[in-house]
Amino acid sequence: MIGGDITPPDEHLCSAKGCRREAGHAVIWRNPKLHTADRRKVWLACDEHRQSLADFVALRGFLIEVVAVDELTDADG
User: Fold this and answer.
1) How far is the C-alpha of 12 from the C-alpha of 34, rounded, in Å?
2) What residue ranges in 5-68 does DSSP mark as E strands?
3) How far apart are CA 5 and CA 2, in angstroms?
4) Of the chain's two ends, which shows fewer C-beta atoms within 10 Å, N or C?
5) Which of 33, 35, 34, 55 lies closest to 43 in space, CA to CA?
6) What is the pLDDT of residues 11-30, one digit of tens each?
7) What is the domain extent for residue 51?
8) What's the structural domain count of the chain?
């Protein structure tokens, strides 16, 4: 373990490139050209990257919603 950067397997890591922080948010999105209406893709986000990840998919028209990680369901994977 280097400087405490290893996150226990039961924790959620931010999906932003290079970020190893614990995620508290879930950015839920779908590309309608590739995914059926019932498909929901999830990117996890720490507080710092929540907005930038949501903006990235929203700009493309893919954003469904942003929720707390503990609000995810089995349907979200």
Assistant:
1) 26
2) 25-29, 41-45, 63-68
3) 6
4) N
5) 55
6) 799 999 999 999 999 999 99
7) 25-76
8) 1
For the chain, list residues with pLDDT below 50.
Answer: 1-4
Q: Does a structural domain hold residue 20?
A: no
- Please list the residues that pair with 43 across neighbouring strands: 27
* C-beta of residue 13 within 8 angstroms of C-beta of residue 1: no
Residue 3 forms part of a structural domain: no
Which residue, chain included where needed, has tokens 């469904």? 64
Asked if the structure places residue 12 within a domain, the reply is no
